[in-house]
Amino acid sequence: RLWRHSIYCAKLCQVLGEALGRLVGEAFTVGLLHDVGKILLCHYNHKAFALALHNYTYEKGKIAHWESEDRVLGINHALVGFFAGENWKLPPLVREAISNHHSPLLGESPRDDGQSLTQMVHLSDLLCNIMGYSSVPIFQDPEATAPLRRVDERLYSFLSLSREDMEAALDNFQRRKGEAEAFFPLMEGG
Predict the structure, then answer these.
(1) Which of 9-18, 138-147, 165-174 has the lowest mean pLDDT?
(2) Using one digit for the tens of pLDDT, what is the confidence trace for 92-147?
(3) Around 111, how many Cα atoms within 13 Å sit in the side-chain half-sphere?
(4) What angle do CA 88, 124, 164 make, to 5 degrees?
């Protein structure tokens, strides 16, 4: 689930970067790596990570998965991803977006590329979860309809995208999902 989510998120980030006319490569990279901290937490402390997931599931949407990680582990996957990115010498722009993908600055339009990239991955992550491509169980309203109806318009307007721009980006993503799915056999060893 995690890899599927990450690959779809990478493709949607790329599509948003194309719609904005900038940060296309960085957007794909951040979309792909934004949850790498989950892999590292699970690998290095599987029992605690499993407990965080159990507690998140028990809470049924009252807290976010990353908040459960903070409670159980004292750190969350976004921060672990940031530290891994430092160790791997990823560009600061990419590390910042990984670190802040659950809490982007949403008070105003992006002042810089780092803020734009963070907002792109935050929006892509949220939309992938809404569309059913989540890495952890999502507790949603079963009456939910179109993804954009469930997203606060400020999330995409901060990127200077209109609702029509976002609908076009989502349509583009749906048409190009196959490009992302080409990676799936690699995950399954085939």
Answers:
(1) 138-147
(2) 989 999 999 988 765 444 556 767 888 899 999 988 888 888 877 665 544 444 55
(3) 5
(4) 145
Gyration radius (Cα) of the chain, Å = 16
DSSP sequence for 116-155: HHHHHHHHHHHHHHHTT--SS-----TT--SGGGGS-THH
2, 9, 180, 181 from 187: Cα distances, Å: 11, 16, 12, 10
Q: Which two tokens stand for residue 72?
A: 């159980």
Q: Which long-range contacts (CB under 8 A, 24 or more apart) does 69-75 make?
A: 69/41, 72/48, 73/41, 73/45, 73/48, 73/49, 75/41
**181 band by pLDDT with thresholds 50, 70 and 90:** confident
Q: How far apart are CA 162 and CA 38, in angstroms?
A: 32
What letter would DSSP give residue 106? -
